[in-house]
Each structure stands twice: as structure tokens, then as C-alpha cells.
UniProtKB/TrEMBL annotation, chains A, B:
Reaction catalysed by this enzyme: an acyl-CoA + a 1,2-diacyl-sn-glycerol = a triacyl-sn-glycerol + CoA; all-trans-retinol + an acyl-CoA = an all-trans-retinyl ester + CoA; 2,3-di-(9Z)-octadecenoyl-sn-glycerol + (9Z)-octadecenoyl-CoA = 1,2,3-tri-(9Z-octadecenoyl)-glycerol + CoA; 1,2-di-(9Z-octadecenoyl)-glycerol + (9Z)-octadecenoate + H(+) = 1,2,3-tri-(9Z-octadecenoyl)-glycerol + H2O
Record-linked Pfam families: MBOAT (PF03062)
Coiled coil: none
UniProt name for this protein: Diacylglycerol O-acyltransferase 1
């Protein structure tokens, strides 16, 4: 088997060295880190994305204020629930409205803002839930949550309702609130700086490869897509698949290994399980359960299990999780691009029949190959569809 | 490990599907089996290659006649030895002279003729040796060869010196003569027809892929090679490496599995070890010892061991084998192309320092990867060098 790998690796390295050389000969050096700035800034005197990020603190404070009033009994549970709902509804709609209506927000800036707001929304939802469970527990309910809420020489409810605590949670690399997070005893400097170095290096690499490899392929795909030339479209799609997949792998390492570990080390955050062995997935379900552990844990704790407790079946609850995920995928793509095409939504919802098909007909190695294939081919299809529609919509102003 | 293979296979299949589609879109369908005919025939009324193949029977008959006279004692050993030497010297020089001097011999036709003559030369050398050993044994020498020369209900020397026997040996898929070859009891029809089908199918595939994939790449490499544009030359070399390697693998299967097994089945020839597991080679030496077993066996039996018996060291004998192999590689390439560049000779001789280097510094998996790399990269370097020189030499007449 290792012989086959040797052969495959030699062939892949040579093939891609050739593509790299061909790319350099055809386009010259396109990588230029300074070109990243206009992606965030259209008008250098107006920083709408930055303003939105500063405003996000308001929602954190509202959530903390609401919980404090609830803990003192100043608000009834209903009033608190309504306040939280309004707070979160505004978090979802207000930045989206700003991104849609303020013309100086760029797509990349918009995506960063909406991503940050979405993460914060999930965190504050968890914050609300856990504090509610604490109050319920003090009335002898929800004993199963004893571990994370137990009170031996640790912070007890309502002692956790401090500014320091909620801001630690805001920056901690998790979406699930706990009163007493596991903490590491000290900061390992060499580990932290290695992760920092990786973050900086992979940022440069991601930007450079996107400029040098992705963008020329995408640009050369516009003509075949407009003409609906099927064979050329397929060729461009397969051409895009390799750099797209490589960038996704690099992004995965950059975000889930380097960045989250760096943050965790800096904050002495003890729980480092940010991903599991999704590369061994033999089913689509296993992939979605293991590639993004923070989101997976949140979905299980605050969405899937509550649904089960309310009496919904596993099937319905699982579908609901995919539906929620599909909604946020669409939200994070459509709003920054200012166009609603439902490709991202349908892409996520298509995971349900795909998961059924792979689980039903392909097992073991074939299942694994099918997961890889859907990863490698599925993403560039979505990328090409959105980029194409974006170019067509903004043809007059955007292309030159 | 199988997960890594899955990923590699998916990536390789997608990459090459893309290349295949790009090739079709750029060049259209170039494969055309009728274009094979002009490779063999320049002038449809003159078939010099075919004539040479018919003439080769003369050398078989001379060898048989010489051995018969030797067995009867009509010729002394010295006269017989000289006759064999003259016969083989003419076999080496006469077809080469015809290929060089007759302008209607095409490079492909010339290569086929010289290849056939070389195989026949090796066979007749073995024939001469074994018959000599038989005579020596009858004077109580060379007892070690007892197995192949033993005489129980089988053919004994000089009963083997018949026209039927020497022609069976001529067509049998081996280079080492034996008085009594191992034979299979009957012809397995389904096995034979499967091999025949493979032969026909892979012939078509080899021709089609060469026309569709190799030739456009080689043609587009001529300009960078003339300009000595190093980066573009490297890009073309890597571009050529993939189809060249695939064609070599197909050729290997076509010749060593399909064709030799078909011939063996048809002739009820029992010894089917035409190749061993060269793909597991961890050293260059192992590769050369295992990829072409008929030639390897001949070299050991009629060249390496006789040299050892004459008192040469293993090192010297091994180098002599590589030297002989280098001579024939050069002979089979330079003469049909009518140009002497020594690339093939030096390519084979370079195996000696390469074998030393890989054996000394790279072991196990790294050695295996090095063997693959030298196979995948070494061949297209030689191909490009010869094709380039051939085009430059025949520029006025050959290119259009």
C-alpha cells in the first residue's frame, strides 16, 4: 500500500509542480499582499465594518444586563426571554441591514462582520440557556448538567454574571458557555509563538495562492459560464477544484489548528478539541459531526438535545440542525454579496439526501472516497455559481 | 493509510480528467489508427523492414547448420566458434547497415527490425552456449547444468538439433535456450483469448494516447527547446512526464503480461515468470533485476556468471552487464533515428552511480520513491532530447 502512496505522491507532486510553473509562466507573479486592503475598504474615510464590530459590544452588554436583572428577580422569566429574543433578532437583522444598505461595505468586509455577529449570536444564545439552566437547577431541575454547573471552590450562579466573565467567553474559542471553563495552568510561550507564526505564514500563503491560482481560473471561467458551454464549464470546474481544495485544507489548518489554539493558549483555555478525524469519514454525517467541533457541540447542546427533549424524533431534529446550518450558510454568503440565490442553502440541504445515499449504498472505503469527492467537487460548484452571478449582476462596475 | 490513498486517487483522477477534457477541447480528436501505417511504410512498394525480417531466417539456419556440424565433429570447436561469431557479427551489423543506408526504412520500422534482430541474437548466443555445454558435459564437465540438460524420457543432445526445435525456441517467450522447456499440458482457450483481447485493446489505447496526448506535448516542446528556455523546458518536461509514464505502464502490461502470456499459452510454454514485483523496488538494482525477467535471466546465465567464472569481481561483472545493456539501448535508438547522440547509452550508464547513491543514502520507502521519480522523470528527459535532436536534424523535411 505504501508503494501505491509513493507512486501517487510522486505523480501528484510532479503534476502540481507543472501546473505551478505553467501558471507562473502564463501570468507572472500575481500575488500582492497590498491588494487585500481594497477588499475590506472601498472608501478609506468610511469604516462601516469596523463600526459594526464596535457596536457589537452593545449586544453583549444587553445580554449581561438582562441576566443580572433575571438573577435578582427584577425581570420575570418571560420579560427576560423576550428581551433576549429581541436582542438576538436585532443582532441578526441590524448588521445584515447595514451591509445591504450601506454601499461602502465590501463583500469581504460584510462577510467578516456577519460572521462575527453570528458567532456572537450563538455564544449569547448559549449564555442565556446556561444561566436559565442555573436558575432551574436551583429549583431542583436539570441535574444532568451538574458537571459544568457544580460549585466547589469555583464560580457559582449568579457570581458568574460579571463583565470579565462574559468578555472571556466572547473571546474564548468555544460557542458553549460554562460557568467554570477548564483552564490550562500557564501559557506555553513556544507553543503560542509557533501557532502565531503559522497564523501569519498561512495568511500570506492563503492570500498569495488565491491571487495567483484561484482568481485567474475563476476569471477564465466567466466566459464559458455565460455561454453555458457545458464541456468548457466542466473543464474550468475541475481546474478550480484543485486550488479550491488546497485552499480549504490550508484554511482548515489555519483556523481550526493555528488560530483557535493560539487564542486558547493566550486565554489559558483548556478544551482544545476543535476538530476530530473528519478525514476518516466513511459517511457524510460523520464528516459534519467531526470537522467543526465548536459548532457541532453548540448544535447538540442548544438545538438538537432541546428538540429531542421537546419530543421530536431524531430524524426531525437532525434535519432541523441541517436546516439551521443551511440558513446561516445562506445568510453569510447572500447578504455580503447582496444577492439571494439560495445556492448555499440548497448546498447544505443537499447534504441530507447525500448523507442518506452514502450511508445507504456506500460504506467503508467507498464512503470515504465519496465524502472526499463531494468535498473536492461540491465546493467549487458553489463558488463558481456565486461568482458567476455576482459578476453578471455587477458587470458594469465590477469587471474590467 | 487507505484514507490518504482515497484522497490521492480522487485528486489524481480529477486532475487527469481535467487534463483530458482540456486536451480534447484544445486539439479535438487526434487519435486515428490509420496514421500508424505511414510510420512503418514510407514507400508503399518497398517493404525493407519486412524483407529484413524474412532474411533473419538465414541466421537461424546458419546457427543450426554450425551446431549440427559441431555435433558430428565435422567442424572443430574453433571453426564452429568462429562461424557463430561471424554469424552474430553480421546479425548486428547487416540490419543496422540496411536501416542506415536504405532511405525508405522509417524510424519505427527500423526499431522493430533491430529489436527483432537483437532478440534473435541473444537467443542464438544462448543456443550456441547451451549446445557447447552439452558437448562439454558429455566429456564430464559443467555438471551444474544437469537440470536443464538431463536426459530422462526427454530430448538429449544432439537430438535437439532439429529445425522444429530451433523455431520453437525462436518464437518462445524466453531468451535462454533449454533442451527441454517446461511445457503446459494444454492451451487454455479462455486465458489465451483474454490475453489476445488485451493485446488488441491496449495496442489501440497506446496508439490513441500517443497521438492524442504525447505528440501535441512533444510538438509544443520544440520551440522552448530550440530557444533553450529553461523554465518552459521544465514545464514541458513535467507535462510530458504524466502521459509518458502512463504509456510506459500500459506498454509494460501490454508486452510483459498480455503479449508474452499469449505467446506462451499458444506455444504451451510453461515458464511464465516474465516480470517480478519491480514496483516494490527499494533500490535501483532491484528494479533492473525484476522488471524484465527474460533479459535479466539471459544476462545472469550467459554474461554475468561466465564473467564471474573467468575470475572477474562482482562489481566489474555488474558494470559490464550495464555496459552491454547501455550499448543495446543506444543501438536500438540511434540506428533507427540515424543519429548518434549517446543519450540512451549515458542514460543506462547513469544507472550505476544512481544505484550506488540510492543504495547508499536512501532505503525503504525513500528508495522506492526515488526509483519511481527516476522512472517518471528520467524517461521523458531522454525522449525530449532525442525528439528535439531528430527534429533539428530533419527540420527541412520532417516538420510542417
Amino acid at each position: 500500500m505504501t508503494r501505491v502512496i509513493n507512486w501517487c505522491v510522486v505523480m501528484l507532486v510532479l503534476s502540481n509542480a507543472r501546473l505551478f510553473l505553467e501558471n507562473l509562466l502564463r501570468y507572472g507573479v500575481l500575488a500582492d499582499p497590498t491588494q487585500v486592503i481594497p477588499l475590506f475598504l472601498k472608501d478609506p474615510y468610511s469604516w462601516p465594518a469596523m463600526c459594526l464590530l464596535i457596536v457589537s459590544n452593545v449586544f453583549i452588554l444587553v445580554a449581561l444586563y438582562t441576566e443580572r436583572q433575571l438573577s435578582k428577580g427584577s425581570f420575570s422569566e418571560l420579560v427576560g426571554f423576550l428581551l433576549h429574543c429581541i436582542n438576538m433578532a436585532v443582532m441578526l437583522t441590524f448588521p445584515a441591514a447595514v451591509v445591504l444598505l450601506v454601499p461602502s461595505v465590501t463583500p469581504v468586509g460584510g462577510a467578516v462582520v456577519l460572521g462575527t455577529y453570528t458567532i456572537l449570536l450563538l455564544k449569547l444564545y448559549s449564555y442565556k440557556d446556561v444561566n436559565l439552566w442555573c436558575r432551574e437547577m436551583s429549583t431542583q431541575k436539570a441535574k444532568k448538567l451538574a458537571r459544568s454547573l457544580s460549585c466547589e471552590q469555583q464560580v457559582c450562579y449568579p457570581g458568574n454574571l460579571t463583565l470579565k466573565d462574559i468578555y472571556y467567553f466572547t473571546f474564548a474559542p468555544t460557542l458553549c458557555y460554562e460557568l467554570n471553563f477548564p483552564r490550562s495552568p500557564n501559557i506555553r510561550m513556544s507553543f503560542m509563538f509557533r501557532r502565531l507564526f503559522e497564523m501569519l505564514f498561512f495568511t500570506q500563503l492563503l492570500v498569495g495562492l488565491t491571487q495567483q491560482w484561484m482568481i485567474p481560473v475563476i476569471q477564465s471561467s466567466m466566459k464559458p459560464l455565460e455561454d453555458m458551454d457545458l464541456s468548457r464549464m466542466t473543464e474550468r470546474l475541475l481546474r478550480l477544484a484543485v486550488p479550491n481544495h488546497l485552499l480549504w485544507l490550508l484554511f482548515f489548518y489555519w483556523f481550526f489548528h493555528s488560530s483557535l489554539n493560539f487564542t486558547a493558549e493566550l486565554l489559558r483555555f483548556g478544551d482544545r478539541q476543535f476538530y476530530k478525524d473528519w478525514w476518516n469519514s466513511e459517511t457524510v454525517t460523520y464528516f459534519w459531526q467531526n470537522w467543526n467541533i465548536p459548532v457541532h457541540k453548540w448544535c447538540i447542546r442548544h438545538f438538537y438535545k432541546p428538540l429531542l427533549r421537546k419530543g421530536f424524533s431524531k430524524m426531525v431534529s437532525q434535519s432541523a440542525v441541517f436546516f439551521l446550518s443551511a440558513f446561516f450558510h445562506e445568510y453569510l454568503v447572500s447578504v455580503p454579496l447582496r444577492m439571494f440565490r439560495l445556492w448555499a442553502f440548497m448546498g447544505m440541504m443537499a447534504q441530507l439526501p447525500l448523507a442518506w445515499f452514502v450511508g445507504r449504498f456506500l460504506r467503508g472505503n467507498y464512503g470515504n472516497a465519496a465524502v472526499w469527492l463531494s468535498l473536492i467537487i461540491g465546493q467549487p460548484i458553489a463558488v463558481l455559481m456565486y461568482v458567476h452571478d455576482y459578476y453578471v449582476l455587477n458587470y458594469g462596475q465590477e469587471t474590467n
